[in-house]
């Protein structure tokens, strides 16, 4: 997640240039997929790679039945997440965790009901994707949900010319980055006990990809 200028009143509070474009579609889709939760006994969601914290703070406000736990390995981003939490003051947003998705984090947290990661796996090496899925397989409850948001290739093909150009630019920056193929992510998730991908079309050729824990043997 790239950042734009910081707030003059609070330089710790960073801005993502894509936030205004994609927040409402993400909010509406997550509300449909996850449901309202329960303010009396909130369900627990971990956001991996929360970046600036704009989404975390605004989504927590929009989903008061969920206990929202943001995380990010970058200290500047964690400061921004904390600053957004202070600015908007949602009472269901927890202090940001320093979490490296490649580590064995899945047994270190209380049981989760959802894991959400937006605009992360295409700007990180493949072991980060592996770590998110493996960790989610350990951390999620029996009815838990794993959700990715961002661009994906499908059956090896890009979903639009803009994504194809974006992929080239990502790989030029770092050969370990790049838009992931949905089949590869689905195969990884299947191996960790998740069912087939449920794909929700989003603006700008993005996807919200949802995996539910399997109840039947593979």
How many β-strand stretches? 6
Q: Order of helices and strands, N to C?
A: HEHEHEHEHHEE
Major sheet: arrangement of strands: 2-1-3-4-6-5
Give me the Rg, rounded.
16 Å
Low-confidence stretches: none
State the separation between the terminal residues, measured CA to CA: 34 Å
Largest sheet: 6 strands, mixed
Q: Mean pLDDT, rounded to whole units? A: 94
Number of helices: 6
Helix content: 25-40%
Q: What would you call the structural class?
A: alpha/beta
Oligomer: single chain
- The global form is globular
Strand content: 15-25%
Secondary structure elements and pairings:
Layout: H1 19-34, E1 43-48, H2 54-62, E2 66-71, H3 75-88, E3 112-118, H4 126-139, E4 140-150, H5 161-173, H6 182-191, E5 198-202, E6 206-212
Parallel strand pairs: 1-2, 1-3, 3-4
Antiparallel strand pairs: 4-6, 5-6
Helix pairs in contact: 2-3
Architecture overview:
By secondary structure, the protein is of the alpha/beta class. 35% of the residues lie in helices and 19% in strands. The protein has 6 helices and 6 strands, in the order αβαβαβαβααββ. Strands 2-1-3-4-6-5 form a 6-stranded mixed beta sheet, sandwiched between helices. Helix 2 (54-62) packs parallel to helix 3.
Please outline what is shown here:
By secondary structure, the chain is an alpha/beta fold.
Based on the model shown, name its key terms.
218 residues; alpha/beta; six-stranded mixed β-sheet; 6 helices; 35% helix; 19% strand
């Amino acid at each position: 997640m790239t950042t734009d200028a910081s707030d003059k009143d609070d330089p710790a509070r960073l801005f993502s240039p894509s936030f205004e474009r994609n927040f409402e579609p993400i909010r509406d889709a997550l509300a449909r997929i996850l449901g309202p939760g329960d303010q009396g006994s909130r369900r627990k969601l971990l956001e991996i790679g929360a970046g600036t914290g704009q989404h975390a703070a605004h989504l927590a406000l929009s989903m008061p039945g969920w206990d929202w736990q943001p995380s990010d390995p970058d200290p500047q981003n964690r400061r921004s997440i904390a600053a957004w939490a202070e600015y908007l003051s949602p009472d269901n947003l927890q202090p940001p965790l320093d979490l490296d998705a490649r580590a064995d984090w899945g047994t270190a947290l209380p049981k989760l009901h959802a894991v959400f990661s937006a605009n992360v796996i295409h700007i990180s090496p493949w072991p980060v994707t592996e770590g998110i899925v493996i960790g989610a397989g350990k951390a999620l409850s029996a009815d838990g949900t794993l959700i990715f948001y961002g661009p994906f290739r499908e059956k090896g093909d890009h979903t639009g010319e803009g994504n194809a150009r974006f992929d080239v630019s990502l790989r030029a920056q770092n050969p370990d980055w790049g838009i992931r193929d949905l089949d590869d992510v689905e195969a990884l998730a299947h191996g960790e006990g998740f069912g087939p991908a449920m794909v929700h079309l989003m603006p700008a050729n993005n996807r919200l990809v949802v995996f539910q824990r399997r109840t039947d043997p593979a």
